[in-house]
C-alpha cells in the first residue's frame, strides 16, 4: 500500500518532490452543492432577481479559487491551470432546492489537478452562501468530492458508487 | 422579507455599504467534516504516523484561509479577524471514520464573521483531502454549515435542527 | 505648497505615518472606459451573447481589485473597505461604442479611498479587454481619473472641468 | 468571425481550455500614461526630489503587477512570465507634462502575454497617481492600449493607426 | 511565567483571541543586514551603478512585505498598518561591506506590530540578495532582531545588550 | 566580471529576460536559525508542550512562503516549485538553544530556486519568533545564507568556508 507522501524523514510535512515526474494532460472533475429554500431559489433563478447573477459571481469566484489553490492548500504544488469550466444544475428536494456544482479543471503539468477542481467547487458554494445569507443562514453546503480524474501515472479514476 | 443585498440598481452585484454599521464583537462557528477509510484514519492518528501532523497542517491552512476570506469570496468585506480556533473530533461510521471539524472565528467589526468560519472549515477539509489523496481519492468532504453566530444587528443564530 | 509625502529623510519612499489621523467616513468615485467595435458591443449587450456576463465578470474583478489595492500599490495603506459599487453605461462614438465605468468606493478609515476606486475602475476595463480580445486586440482603455471624493481632512473634491 | 471565447455552453464565463496549445516565445508591449502638472513634474524629475524614486516605485509596482495578472483578471491564465521591462518618457503638453509608460512583457507559454503588459502599465500609472496625489488629485491616467504583440497562433499585431 | 499563547486546549495552534484588547498606538523597530563584497558595494552605491536603485527596490519590497505579514506568518493577526519607514546604512567590515537595515512599523491596533517590522527587514535583505546574486552567491544575511517596541499592554521593550 | 542583471538601459530595475534559458532540474539549500532561551526550548521540545507543533506551524509557513517568493521579491521570476523540504536541528549555545533551519527547494525551471529556499528559511524563523514572542521578545534570528545550489548554466555552488 502506498504511504503518506507529505512527510519527510523527521515525520514532518513537506512538499513532495515531483521534479522528475513527466508532464501530461490532466483533468479532474469535482462535485459540490448547496441547498437553499424556495425563496432563495426563486431569487436566484427568476427574471425579477436578475437571473444568473448570483451564479455568475459564484462562478468567477470558483475559477479564481482554482488559480489560488496552491496558495490555499499548504502542500499543494503550483501547476499551470489550462482551463476551468463550471456547470450548474438545480434539483428539487421536497420543499428545498439544491444547486449542483460541477467543476472541471485541466492542466498540462507534473501533478494532478484534483485539488483545483475541489477547491473551486467549494469556493463556488461558499460564494452562493455569502450572497444569499441575508435571507437565510441555514443553507447547507452539500458533500464535496471528486467524480473523475484522468491523466498522470496513477491513471483514471471515476467514482462508481453514489455518495449517500 | 429581506431582499438580496448584493445587487445594485443595475441588477448587478456590488459590495454592500456597511460604512454606517456599528462595530461590535462578533463570533461564528462553522462545521465541516471529511470521511476517510480505516487505513487513513490509522495513519493520521497512530503514533507511527506522527500523530497530529496532518491535522496540524490542516489547521494552519484553515486559520490562514480565514484571513484570506475576503480575497476568496468576491462580495465579502475585509474584517479584522481577532481570533480563530479549530477543533477536531473523530466519529466512526461503520468501517469508515469521519473527522469532525469545528471552526470558531471572532472579530470586532462592522459585519459578521460567518464566511470566515465557513471558509476555514472548508479549507481545513480540503487540506486533509490533499494530504491523504495518495492513499484514496474517494474521500468525501461532508456537509458544511453554520452552527452558531453571535453579535451584530441580526442577533444570535443557532442551528437547532440537526443536518441530515 | 504641500510636499511629496512618500519620501523619508534619506530621500527614499516610505509609507507615510497616518497613526494619528482620525477615522472618518470617506467616499471616492473614479471613472474609466473602454472603446470597443460594434461587433463586440453587440456581443456584450445582445440577448444572444448572454447579456451582462462580460460586465458581470468585469464587475466582480473590479470589486475584488478594490480589496487588493494596498497589495498592488506599494505605498498605499490598507483600509477597511466598507462598500464598492460599479455602474456601467454605453455611449456611441461614431461607429464604435464606449463602455463608461464608474466606481464608488467607501471606507470608514484614516486615509482616503481614491486609490481603491481608481484601481477597481482600471481592473474593470482590463477585464473587459481580456474577455473580448479574441475578437479585436485594438480596443482602447480610456482616460481614468477621480471624479469625486468626500471625507477626510482635505475635504471634498469634484472634478469641475471635463477631461478632454 | 471568431466568437467570444470565455463562455461555456450555459452561457457563463469559463477559463478557456488551452491544454493543447503549443508553448512558444511570446512578447507584448502596452502603452499607458499619466498627465501631471509642472510642480509634480519638477518634483519627480529634479535632483532635489531624489530623481527617479517615484518612477522607481512605479516600476517595481508595474513589474509585480505583471506577475499578479492572473490573480487580478478572472479569466486570465497563469503563465510563466520570463521578463518585464518598463520604459518611461516625458512629453510636454502645453503647461502640463505627460509621463509615457511602455511595458514589454515576455513569456514562453501557451497563451499570450498581452494582459500582463496592459496590467503592468495600468498599475504603473496608478502608482504614480498614488505617490503624487497629495499635490494634485486632478491627474489623469491616459489611454491604455496594446502597441505590439508577437508569437502564438494568431501571429503578430502592431497598432498602425495612432490613438487619438 | 507566561505560557505559549498560540495553542488551544487540544494542544494545537490557534490564532489567539484579541477581540477584547484595546486599540492603541504601537510601534516596532527591527534590524537586519546583509554583507556584500566590495564589487557589489560599489555597484550599489556608485553613480555608475545607478545609485540607490537596488535599495529602492529593496525598500519597496520591505514595505509591501510589512503589509503581507499576516498572510505570511500563520498565527499573526491582520492589523491596519499605519506607517512603515526603512533606513539604510553602510558599515565596512574588513574587505566587505554590511548594509544595515532598520525598519520601523506603526499601527493603531489591538496587537503589536513587531512581526511586520521583522518581516519587512527580512524581505528587504532577501531582495538585495536577489538583485546582486549574479555577482556573488556567497552574500550573508545578518542577524535579524527586534530593537524596540512601544505601546500595548506589555509596554515598551528596548534591546539593551548588543547582539554578538 | 558579470554586471548587475536587474537594470534596464534607463538604469532602472527590470525583470531580466529568461525566455531563452533552458529548463533544467535545479535545487538550492538555504540555512537560517533562531536562538531561544531554555524556557522556550523546553516549551517547543517537551512532551508537555505538544512537541513539534511550533515547528509544524513554522514548517508549513516556510513551505507556503517558498511558493510566494516571486510575489514577495520584486524581480524574482515565477517558477514551478517541484518540492520543498525543511529540516530542523537543535544546538545548545551556553545557556541558550539555537534552532537550525535547513530548507531545500527544487524546480524544473529556467532560473534558479535560491530565493525560494532563502525565503522559506527566513519565514520559518520569523514564524518561530511569532509563536514564542509572548515569552521573550529578545530572540535573535541568525545568519541566513545559501549553502548549496545545483543545476543551471552557472553550475553548482557550495559554501566551503563556514559563516562566522
Automatic annotation (TrEMBL), chains A, B, C, D, E, F:
SUPFAM superfamilies, alphabetized: Molybdenum cofactor biosynthesis protein C, MoaC
UniProt EC number: 4.6.1.17
Positions with a binding annotation for substrate: 75-77, 115-116
Keywords on record: Lyase, Molybdenum cofactor biosynthesis
Pathway stated in the Swiss-Prot or TrEMBL entry: Cofactor biosynthesis; molybdopterin biosynthesis
The Molybdopterin cofactor biosynthesis C (MoaC) domain, residue ranges: 15-152
InterPro entries xref list: MoaC, MoaC_bact/euk, MoaC_sf, MoCo_biosynth_MoaA/MoaC, Mopterin_CF_biosynth-C_dom
Active site: 130
Catalytic activity reported: (8S)-3',8-cyclo-7,8-dihydroguanosine 5'-triphosphate = cyclic pyranopterin phosphate + diphosphate
A single MF term (Gene Ontology): cyclic pyranopterin monophosphate synthase activity
Top-rank taxon: Bacteria
PANTHER family attached to this UniProt entry: CYCLIC PYRANOPTERIN MONOPHOSPHATE SYNTHASE, MOLYBDOPTERIN COFACTOR SYNTHESIS PROTEIN A
Family named by the database record: Belongs to the MoaC family.
Protein function: Catalyzes the conversion of (8S)-3',8-cyclo-7,8-dihydroguanosine 5'-triphosphate to cyclic pyranopterin monophosphate (cPMP).
Subunit-level organization: Homohexamer; trimer of dimers.
Name recorded for this polypeptide: Cyclic pyranopterin monophosphate synthase
Species this protein is from: Alkalicoccobacillus plakortidis
Source organism phylogeny: Bacteria, Bacillati, Bacillota, Bacilli, Bacillales
Amino acid at each position: 500500500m502506498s504511504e503518506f507522501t507529505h512527510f519527510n524523514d523527521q515525520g514532518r510535512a513537506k512538499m513532495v518532490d515531483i521534479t522528475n515526474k513527466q508532464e501530461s494532460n490532466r483533468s479532474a472533475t469535482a462535485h459540490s452543492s448547496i441547498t437553499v429554500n424556495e425563496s432563495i431559489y426563486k431569487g436566484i433563478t427568476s427574471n425579477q432577481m436578475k437571473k444568473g447573477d448570483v451564479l455568475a459571481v459564484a462562478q468567477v469566484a470558483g475559477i479564481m479559487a482554482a488559480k489560488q489553490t496552491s496558495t490555499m492548500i499548504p502542500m499543494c504544488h503550483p501547476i499551470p491551470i489550462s482551463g476551468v469550466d463550471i456547470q450548474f444544475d438545480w434539483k428539487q428536494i421536497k420543499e428545498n432546492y439544491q444547486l449542483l456544482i460541477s467543476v472541471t479543471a485541466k492542466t498540462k503539468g507534473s501533478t494532478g489537478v484534483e485539488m483545483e477542481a475541489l477547491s473551486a467547487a467549494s469556493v463556488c458554494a461558499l460564494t452562493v452562501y455569502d450572497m444569499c445569507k441575508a435571507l437565510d443562514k441555514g443553507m447547507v453546503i452539500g458533500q464535496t468530492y471528486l467524480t473523475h480524474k484522468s491523466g498522470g501515472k496513477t491513471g483514471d479514476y471515476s467514482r462508481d458508487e453514489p455518495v449517500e
